[in-house]
Amino acid sequence: MALATVAAAGVAASPSVAQAQQSEAMSVVAGWSVVAGLGHFVYDEPGVEGHRIWFGVQAVTAADGSTRGHFLYRHELPDGTLVGQGRADVTCLKVTGNVAVFTAIVPEGQGNVKNHGYYVKIIDGGSEPDQIVDAQAQNGTERPPTRCLDPETDLPPGSPQRPRYPVLIGGYAVHG
Predict the structure, then answer these.
(1) How many CA atoms lie within 13 A of 122 on its CB side?
(2) Are 119 and 136 in contact (CB under 8 A)?
(3) Distance of CA 143 to the CA centre of its chain
(4) Full-model pTM
(5) Is there a contact between 14 and 20 (Cβ–Cβ < 8 Å)?
(6) By 3-state DSSP, what share of the chain in percent is helix, strand and coil, each rounded to 5?
(7) Is the pLDDT of residue 86 over 70?
(8) Pick from 54, 149, 143: nearest CA to 106
(9) Where are the beta strands (DSSP E) in 98-176?
């Protein structure tokens, strides 16, 4: 897809260039919901303080509701030691204004995780830093839900509130 090339080239150049190029590319696909970009943030929760996370996504939802896309992830300890990395298939994307909520499921046989799902919310900050919220279904015995789940509002009762993290490097473009 041309959007992937533009997004990847833009992120490699600089976050501001990436956002401008992604906005131009997305005007071509008017009428579709789109999220694209690559961003880095750092967890500050107990047990994962200082863990560095990279999420890359390119996904579209057509007018008929079908979603296609890919999600890349990389997780490093504070000292840079790799914990895990890989890709997942985006199964659902919903865009409202500058907010994208999507689900990405790691395919069977990919990496060392099984039945692993990512539930991500990206808030495109425009001229301000983007924000990201994530939750994961990890290595369960059953396939995780593939529908869109907002990690701030759709988790089971009693689940801890998921924090919003500022994107420190890179950024995302959201269009709906």
Answers:
(1) 33
(2) yes
(3) 19
(4) 0.80
(5) no
(6) 15, 45, 45
(7) yes
(8) 143
(9) 99-105, 117-123, 131-137, 165-166, 169-175
Query: ∠ at Cα 97 (57, 18), nearest 5°?
Result: 40
Q: 27 Cβ partners below 8 Å, 6+ apart?
A: none
User: Could you give phi then psi for residue 5, rounded to 5 degrees?
Assistant: -65, -45
Collapsed DSSP state (helix, strand, coil) of residue 50? coil
* pLDDT tens, position by position, 120-146: 999 999 999 999 999 998 877 788 889
Q: Do residues 65 and 91 lie in contact, with contact meaning Cβ atoms separated by under 8 Å?
A: no
- Among candidate residues 44, 61, 35, 60, the one with its CA nearest the CA of residue 130: 35
User: What are the residue boundaries of the structural domains of the chain, listed by start?
Assistant: 2-175
Q: Are 133 and 163 in contact (CB under 8 A)?
A: yes
Residue (of 13, 133, 136, 1) closest to 59 by Cα position: 1
